[in-house]
Protein: DUF4093 domain-containing protein
Amino acid sequence: MIKIKEAIVVEGIYDKVKLANIFDTVIVPTGGFDIFKNRNTQMIIQKLARSRGIIVFTDCDRAGFVIRNFIKNIVKSGVVKHAYIPEIEGKEKRKSAPSKEGFLGVEGVGNDIIKSAIEKCGVSENDKNRRFVTKADLFADGLSGGENSFKYRKMLTKELDLPHRISANMLLDVINSLYDYDEYKSQIKLIKGGE
Structure:
């Protein structure tokens, strides 16, 4: 696994699964054109761009470029890098026919091509000594698996200016992207002290 600082924004869940086997970072799927109306995903992408930078990694077809340009336009501050795959004709294994334009998407190209594309856009290595927030931390702090978990998560997302509908897993990814462990613990003390 290659640890990188920047979060990677991809089109779909299959792209996310493929990249999660290569890179140790937050990977955010846009849901394709759903990004145009999904304010929660837009907010997460904007926050990630400001805190750690993002790499937009969409397919090389027209739809991929429309999504790429939309993301570039909604991120008003922060770092946005772009990674591109070459136009390779073919179809993904899970599909019965090639895409409309006949090119492989991110999920269909080889791992070496993906690594090369991400490296070319100038990634930063993650701090290997950093203490990350874990699922066990969320449980111990009452944010998952407990009677008041939803209430505490809602309080935390409000305090961090995040969408309240964010899942526990995405919350964990976002916390680790935007804050270090000590900052997270300070927020927990703040929300639990304010009861």
Observations:
- The mean pLDDT is 86.
